[in-house]
Inverse folding.
């Protein structure tokens, strides 16, 4: 037993006083005169003995009464733990990542934790609290309460190891204190195994709230699955974390105007395809209705206005009128240059370069074209009838195309269309099995026929490519082939030109280190800004002659469509989305962990910490005993004869 005010126990020495008084009173006798003492002898002896017993009992009762009063004022108690006399210091990590939007007993897991803090911690008590984005050190709940209520979900989550180490750093250097680190999270599975270092100075408690509903449907990604002269097919991928759903509605908005809507049955994964006009500028937002996590119910993307596709034809003796008829001014910026008068500075500025029947490819041109393809440029090679095969093969090998063999064939028909090739996919409504087969008189042969787009009747390739660069096996001049007059030339060459334009990415992911090339030229003192409806920032940027590369990191932190501006002029729009990793509702099993305590409610954990500093107070019992002894004394004096 311990005492809150042990110095008051010295008052027990005062109990000597009633003892002394009582002893003196026992020696004092009162003489009473009687006529005949003979008859009172026995009564007198009996009365004196009874009186002494009564006085001793009364003395004992009074001493107990006074002792209980003194002990009550000293406030005795029995501690519940050995750490009752240590100062308590509590640090709380509150996970505010998007996965904490999952539904618990009363609303989201995050809101449950916030309410437990508000309801369980006294307003004047000192605590330290931190989230993935905010840190509040050595403050009181009264000061923290407003900020706590206004906390928002964050797109980036600390690793659990980093959260543990940061929490240890927030403890104050106050000597011998009882340190409690509480990590509140759903403990969603991450790449690394979950473990915490043993530290005897810190008591770690992991609070993993109970999740009532693990169902969640998310929009995971968007990509362009097909491009034609008139339309773009936009494919949307969705995933489901629980039981299959018969009807999931997916809405497509363009500038907040509903553009299209589709409904699908969703088991685990599914795709939805929206078809949109090719030349339309789209500031898109995809939306679903789902009662699970909220952050992955929307997905932003944008398709900017498409510039004219730059095509450069390098000719020697061959005419290029057929190229001019295909690459018209409404969609293409077509230029033609003779090989002997070629300005090499034009090459890197093009989207597509056509080598139109050159007898040989000069080494300087070959090196320039290799560098051009490495910078996302596209190449189309049409050989001459008589060529320097070595100069061609050097370029073909360096552009991932199959080289020519020295063998030369004659009189072939083009009979096979490879409809599954990316160049021709969805180009034809129906597969044509009987058409007027184009002919060639002289043709080269490739070392391999893989990647063929069009083939001869013997299976060898007439046109092959790898979705980036393409090469014909034969010249296209009318003296060698009637392919120019075929119905195939327009869709083939047009699609090669169309796909040579590298469309800007549909979206970027928040939190990743993105390098975004903006095709623009700015002055020496000019800068580009990223702006939304509320704010604008100046990102890190590198300026080149015809592009500005923006580096994004900490900004933006909110999903949406941002404008790239040069002063007040909007150059381009960029879409940013939250990382979908937290859409997967998979959690760690904490029971196997060592060196930590586990709980499912933050309120319970806080109350347990309080109880370690609590004691069983006994002063009330001593007050009750004092009253009891007072009553006993009164009864003794009144009824004991």
């Amino acid at each position: 037993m311990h005492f809150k005010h042990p110095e008051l126990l010295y008052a027990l020495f005062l109990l000597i006083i009633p003892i002394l008084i009582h002893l003196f009173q026992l020696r004092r006798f009162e003489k009473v005169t009687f006529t005949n003492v003979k008859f009172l002898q026995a009564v007198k002896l009996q009365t004196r003995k009874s009186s002494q017993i009564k006085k001793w009992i009364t003395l004992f009762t009074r001493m107990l009464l006074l002792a209980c009063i003194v002990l009550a004022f000293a406030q005795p108690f029995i501690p519940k733990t050995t750490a009752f006399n240590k100062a308590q210091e509590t640090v709380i990590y509150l996970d505010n990542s998007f996965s904490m939007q999952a539904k618990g007993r009363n609303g989201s897991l995050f809101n449950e934790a916030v309410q437990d803090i508000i309801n369980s911690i006294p307003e004047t008590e000192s605590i330290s609290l931190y989230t993935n984005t905010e840190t509040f050190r050595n403050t009181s709940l009264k000061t923290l309460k407003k900020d706590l209520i206004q906390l928002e979900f964050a797109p980036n989550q600390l690793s659990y190891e980093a959260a543990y180490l940061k929490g240890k750093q927030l403890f104050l250097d106050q000597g011998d204190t009882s340190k409690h680190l509480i990590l509140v999270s759903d403990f969603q599975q991450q790449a690394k195994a979950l473990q915490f270092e043993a530290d005897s100075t810190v008591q770690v408690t992991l609070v993993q709230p109970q999740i009532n509903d693990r169902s969640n449907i998310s929009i995971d990604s968007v990509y362009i699955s097909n491009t034609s002269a008139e339309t773009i097919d936009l494919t949307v991928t969705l995933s489901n974390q629980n039981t299959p759903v018969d009807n999931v509605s997916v809405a497509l908005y363009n500038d907040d105007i509903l553009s299209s809507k589709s409904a699908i049955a969703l088991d685990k994964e599914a795709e939805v395809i929206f078809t949109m006009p090719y030349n339309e500028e789209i500031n898109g937002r995809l939306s679903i209705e789902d009662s699970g996590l909220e952050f992955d119910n929307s997905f932003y993307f944008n398709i900017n206005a498409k510039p004219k596709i730059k095509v450069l034809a390098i000719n020697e003796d061959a005419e290029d009128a057929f190229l001019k008829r295909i690459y018209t001014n409404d969609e293409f910026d077509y230029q033609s240059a003779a090989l002997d008068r070629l300005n090499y500075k034009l090459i890197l500025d093009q989207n597509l370069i056509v080598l139109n029947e050159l007898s040989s490819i000069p080494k300087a041109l070959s090196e320039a074209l290799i560098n051009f393809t490495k910078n996302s440029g596209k190449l189309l090679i049409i050989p001459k009838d008589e060529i320097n095969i070595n100069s061609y093969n050097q370029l073909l090998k360096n552009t991932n195309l199959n080289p020519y063999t020295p063998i030369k064939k004659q009189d072939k028909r083009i009979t096979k269309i490879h409809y599954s090739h990316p160049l021709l996919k969805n180009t034809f409504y129906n597969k044509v099995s009987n058409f007027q087969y184009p002919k060639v008189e002289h043709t080269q042969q490739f070392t391999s026929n893989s990647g063929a787009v069009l083939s001869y009747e013997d299976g060898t390739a007439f046109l092959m490519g790898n979705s980036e660069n393409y090469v014909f096996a034969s010249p296209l001049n009318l003296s060698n082939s009637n392919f120019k007059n075929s119905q195939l030339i327009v869709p083939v060459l047009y699609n090669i030109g169309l796909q040579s334009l590298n469309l800007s990415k549909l979206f970027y992911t928040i939190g990743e280190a993105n390098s975004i090339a903006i095709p623009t030229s700015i002055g020496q003192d000019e800068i580009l800004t990223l702006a939304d409806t509320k704010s604008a920032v100046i990102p890190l940027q590198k300026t080149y002659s015809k592009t500005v590369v923006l580096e994004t990191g900490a900004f933006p932190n909110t999903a949406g469509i941002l404008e790239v501006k040069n002063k007040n002029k909007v150059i381009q729009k960029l879409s940013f989305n939250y990382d979908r990793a937290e859409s997967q509702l998979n959690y760690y099993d904490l029971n196997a962990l060592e060196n930590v305590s586990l709980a499912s409610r933050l309120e319970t954990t806080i109350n347990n910490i309080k109880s370690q500093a609590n004691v069983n107070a006994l002063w009330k019992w001593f007050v009750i005993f004092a009253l009891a002894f007072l009553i006993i004394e009164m009864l003794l004096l009144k009824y004991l004869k």
